[in-house]
Amino acid sequence: MSTATGTAKELNVQLAKVGQPAPEFDLPSTKNMETLAENVKLSDYKGKWLILLFYPLDFTFVCPTELLHFSDRLDELEGIGAEVIGISTDSVHSHRAWVKTPRDQNGIADLKYPLASDVGGRLAAKYNILVEDANIALRGLFIINPEGVLQYSVVHDLNIGRSVDETLRVLQGLQTGGLCAADWKPGQDNLTV
């Protein structure tokens, strides 16, 4: 399995790095399910925390479990100032078909956040999670702060889903602006030095 590291360097593309400005994007999305004419852009989320959930493919098996888990708990994420965008290399037409498919038929009906289409894998390459041979993204979760700076990055292999609980814990830890010990939980004090 080869990733986009070589390709990104060859194209002189800046790879995403924690502590640096997140790569700009402007991607087709399901924000308007009827027309599919409303893109999502990083600039749309200025002033908010943003969680990017890259996943491999629509209509697969692990993907709906995590996308729906984040959707079902979106109120908690929004309650602490965060928005979510799901991203894969599928087309927006595939995304719309999947969102319109009932959950009991392996669909993600009633998903509460937009899915973005990174058909060429350019954004996935910038995050160094593109599996070039298959043109799919690994399971990457990235948290961007309200100023547009990448604060957190975790990448899983294709078979392992991500945890909303851990994402909430990390997001709340980042929002404290302080030092958080191992296994820090919201409500606990930060470390003092």
Explain this structure.
This protein is an alpha/beta fold and 193 residues long. It has one domain (5-176): Glutaredoxin (3-Layer(aba) Sandwich). The protein is 25% helix and 19% strand. The protein has helices spanning 5-10, 62-72, 74-79, 92-99, 122-126, 164-176, and strands at 26-27, 40-41, 49-54, 82-88, 115-117, 130-131, 136-137, 139-144, 150-156. The strands form three sheets. The protein has a five-stranded mixed beta sheet. Strands 1-2 form a two-stranded antiparallel ribbon. A two-stranded antiparallel sheet has the order 6-7. A hairpin with a 5-residue loop joins strand 8 and strand 9 (150-156). It starts with a helix and ends in a 17-residue tail after the last helix.
Mind describing the biggest β-sheet? 5 strands, mixed
CATH homologous superfamily (4th level) name:
Glutaredoxin
Q: What's the count of strands?
A: 9
Indicate the overall shape: globular
* CATH topology title: Glutaredoxin
Straight-line distance between termini: 44 Å
Please report which band the strand proportion falls in: under 5%, 5-15%, 15-25%, 25-35%, 35-45% or over 45%: 15-25%
Spans of at least 5 consecutive residues with low confidence = 1-6
Count of helical stretches: 6
Strand order within the widest beta sheet = 5-4-3-8-9
The CATH architecture: 3-Layer(aba) Sandwich
Please identify the top-level CATH class. Answer: Alpha Beta
Overall domain count: 1
Order of helices and strands: HEEEHHEHEHEEEEH
Helix-strand blueprint:
Blueprint: H1 5-10, E1 26-27, E2 40-41, E3 49-54, H2 62-72, H3 74-79, E4 82-88, H4 92-99, E5 115-117, H5 122-126, E6 130-131, E7 136-137, E8 139-144, E9 150-156, H6 164-176
Parallel strand pairs: 3-4, 4-5
Antiparallel strand pairs: 1-2, 3-8, 6-7, 8-9
